[in-house]
Design goal:
Blueprint (H helix, E strand, L loop, with lengths): L1 E5 L4 H13 L3 E5 L10 H6 L7 E4 L2 E3 L2 H11 L10 H36 L3 H11 L2 H13 L4 H21 L13 H15 L3 H5 L3 H11 L2 H6 L6 H28 L1
Parallel strand pairs: 1-2
Antiparallel strand pairs: 1-3, 3-4
Helix pairs in contact: 1-3, 1-8, 4-6, 4-7, 4-8, 4-12, 7-10, 7-12
Length: 269
């Protein structure tokens, strides 16, 4: 039996749920509410000492890190495959996973925090906020959270996030040009799954058009990804109208500044 500890609107959880859906695997759901900090409860920390979601349990083994979980599922349950047979194409696939893990994940966290979660944190007492910072554990993540709370969209981390997405979308447009429609070989793969939740979050925040309006290959690719049953079942169809409206309203408030920062980045780069 597969068990997944996850949160509905966690981008990393969405990656894993899409993989499970593509594999048509049965799994038992354990919802971990990040807003009430259930990820830091002792029982969950025994499964995942880093205190984040998702965590997959298979044959009593706990597996962390969403990218590794997706690759584990593809190896443990090889049909249908989500990685190309060709070694070079598999490298292409993993390059996109690496881009997510090394910049796009922190970038979407920065955007979401600046647009939405900063206001929620303002409602907490200084003691509650400090407890949250301690629970983060990772000093780099703690510093990022503090910077975003203090400075919002003017935090230097936001400019870094804008740059990470600009680099990624430029590479995507180049990679998709002349291909059959997918990023790795001739097939829908973990490259698409690893990227999809991050583009979805940008779209919900109303930012996505800033990067893809002038990139037709990425636009066509994104339309194909959103047509996948796994995307609709594990991401698109799970979002309520209220959740979508909240993200859109929050994103609209800072979108003009994000556009300015992108222009600044392009002038600098």
């Amino acid at each position: 039996m597969l068990e997944l500890y996850h949160f509905k609107n966690s981008v990393c959880s969405q990656k894993v749920r899409m993989t499970l859906s593509e594999k048509d695997l049965e799994w038992h759901s354990h919802e971990v509410n990040l807003f009430t900090q259930e990820q830091y409860e002792p029982a969950y920390l025994k499964l995942n000492p880093k205190g984040y979601v998702p965590t997959l349990i298979h044959d009593s083994k706990a597996i962390w890190e969403s990218t590794l979980i997706c690759e584990y599922l593809d190896e443990a349950f090889p049909m249908p495959p989500l990685a190309p047979d060709d070694a070079g194409a598999r490298v292409d696939m993993r390059q996109w996973s690496k881009a997510v893990d090394e910049g796009l994940f922190s970038g979407v966290t920065v955007f979401s925090f600046s647009a939405m979660f900063r206001n929620r944190l303002k409602q907490q007492s200084p003691e509650e906020r400090e407890r949250r910072y301690r629970n983060v554990g990772d000093p780099e993540r703690r510093d990022r959270h503090k910077s975003l709370f203090q400075d919002g969209v003017e935090s230097p981390y936001v400019f870094r996030a804008v740059g990470a997405y600009e680099i990624a979308f430029k590479k995507m447009e180049e990679a998709l040009a002349g291909r059959t429609g997918w990023l790795a070989g001739d097939m829908f793969s973990l490259a698409e799954i690893n990227l999809a939740p991050f583009l979805a979050r940008l779209e919900y925040l109303t930012f996505l058009d800033l990067w893809i309006n002038d990139r037709p290959a990425v636009q066509a690719w994104w339309r194909r990804v959103k047509q996948r049953p796994s995307y609709r079942a594990q991401l698109g169809d799970l979002m309520t109208a209220d959740e979508i409206e909240e993200m859109q309203s929050a994103g609209d408030r800072i979108k003009p500044r994000i556009a300015e920062l992108r222009a600044e980045y392009l002038a600098w780069a």
